[in-house]
Amino acid sequence: MSTGRGTLMSDELTLLEKAALLSGASVWESRAVPRLGIRSMTLADGPHGIRKQVGSSDHLGINASTPATCFPTAATVANSWDVDLAHQVGAALGAEAVDLGVDVVLGPGLNIKRSPLCGRNFEYFSEDPYLSGTLAAGYVSGIQSQGVSACPKHFAVNSQELRRMASDSVIDERTLREIYLTAFEIVVRDAQPKALMSAYNKVNGTYAHENAHLLQDVLRTEWGFDGVVVSDWGGSNDAVAAVRAGGTLEMPSPGLDSARQLVAAVEQGRLTEAELDARVAEMISLVARIDPSRDATVDTDAHHALARRAAEASQVLLKNDHGTLPLAAGTRVAVIGDFAQTPRYQGAGSSVVNPTRLTTTLDALAASSLEVVRHAQGFVRTGGADPSLLAEALTAAAAADVALVYLGLDETSESEGNDRTHLRLADNQVALLAALRGVATRVVVVLSAGSVVEMPWLGDTDALVHGYLGGQAGAEATVNVLTGAVNPSGRLAETYPVRLEDTASHAYYPGRHETAEYREGIYVGYRHTVTAAVPTLFPFGFGLGYTTFAYADLVVDAHGATFTVTNTGAVAGAEVTQMYVGRHAPSGVHRAARELKGFRKVHLEPGETATLTIPFDRYTFRHFAVAHDAWQVEAGEFSVQVGPNVEDLPLAAVLEVAGEEVADRPAGLASYDAAAVTAVPDAEFSALLGRELVARAPRGPLDVNAPLRALHGARSPLARLAAWVLARLIGRSMRRGKPDLNLLFLYNMPLRAMAKMTNGTVTTEMVDSMVTVVNGRFFRGVGGLVAGYVRGRRSTRRLSAELARPVPVPAPSAAR
Hints:
By secondary structure, the protein is α/β, with parallel strands linked by helices. The chain is built from 23 helices and 26 strands.
């Protein structure tokens, strides 16, 4: 970190100014110290488009956001397996941030897709840490190439939306390191982000924003991170503990309540000024690393074209019987499905972008070589049978050569703040498809969803294109794939199980109480299916195209794998070559049968051959040795396999790797040795953790960390009524097909967050009094609320006046 100027200016700040710098001035702005030239910075959501809210106090999108290019979501771009494309999208995001006056782009999101049920999976890249980290590094380097800061998130082990602000992720150290931290490690080491966002949840009993093991031991000491750790919005628990542990900036706006607590902690000796200064230096350094005079010219047409190219590269062709696709010019098509007219092109929640333009399927088809004979809505988007819509769709299909059927998940199925409960499409969509099979000559399904769906209906379609959530130009991209203007080259970045019950975490997900237990360990996604021989619908890395490729001539040495790929088809196309590594000889630790350790995407003309090398790196052979608290490479033979997906690896070689000798497998881990992890007993999970499981405490009085949803069990009837009303309002928004993020956020929000998000109107003292009320002591609690409010207002006025008071400038000192 460039600490010279940061240390000098820290000496010039008063204790209160230092404390105030470490929390937001408003929902989207950091604090300034004008007398020292420390300006306020603007932060904005930006995983796949800049969401700069019109209102400075608007966290959840009550007001409209400024128009910006809506790129495909991370789950979509992940299917491209294209790091250069990720960098281009990141650079465009950075340029638009500059144009909108944004200093810190809050993204990308790179949490691991532990379960396909996570409601926010559309914002994340993959179930695999290597793919996630490599693509996210492309985004971060692109964003920061424009002179602004990226802020990858959410660090760490943030895998569910249920109780997300009041959940404890219980996980063993090896799984934490290998699966849930490796993606962040790749980003920090390769792209050097200037900021990083901590997660809402606890990790092994300690909130992420005040977890010294994560923020100091791993992030700063081991990886060398030198930037600012920003709390997720409302995710700070204890301001003093956060500063001590390595949490830098508390967002969004606790007023001066947190500053007061920090000053008191220093004065009372509970926090050293050196600890405070370390965080202040990080803030000052971030301000210095972002040039306020930077400029960028945004070409909205060029960015729309980039959004289309990104979507084209990310479309996944999952089925294509008898060469149904591409469709020849002049093919008469019936366009069926509500998603054709009203596209699902992004997820719901804080990442929602107000696009600069939006192309629908009907618009894109009108400009194509296909002849649209009819369009039928086909089904009600939010579910329920409608015989008239079904009849209209059947009539349309009978009049065409091909039925193009646009199916998908609606907005209530995938949303920040709410996890999915199943992987099915709506019954009315499945019924429509079954009926169309009886009247249509050919059926092509186009799927819109940000995550996995079960497909018992797959036999009712001749071809299936998965567009994921393709952004504002996604409809154009899909039509280009359907017509063959684009040869699809997307490959799945997540495993598609036959059924939800086949996923390793099914029995444990989501954690519905205080803890979320990661009992499946390292066996996430394909690591489970390939090791436990679980059949899949579509394997990790799978995707079809309009040409074919042949692999040959594998040579493996100490530096990497070299091989050839030939386009054996009649049209140009791109192949995603994937390298997997697994233990060939018996191992001293339990392992997945194979793990992704490298990939290359290559574009080839018909008949063209390319020789490719995928190098080994620090991540290739290592495992985390808990007993030594260090990464180790186990000596012995490893299998290196190359091919188009995790279940189709035509090239293989065995490599003898030098390293440490690992002792026999630890006792008591039979389930993990066999990858039979869907029903791990308490004793084995405890052995994996290396500590006894903490029994769930019997229900007692609620505390400040209880989410509002817990008020259903409060002693106060008023609190129970409030929870009931909130649940009813959420249910109503879901039935309308428009999930209310504000309500979902509140429902999962702990009581303490009121002191973190109200700009000082509610203080921590007042939250304590609210807890007294909900626990049934109404008059005592209300009295405390009133007294706390009065004291809080007085304190705010006093501290505000002190911050505004001129500070004498000290005389120059030779010691400096």
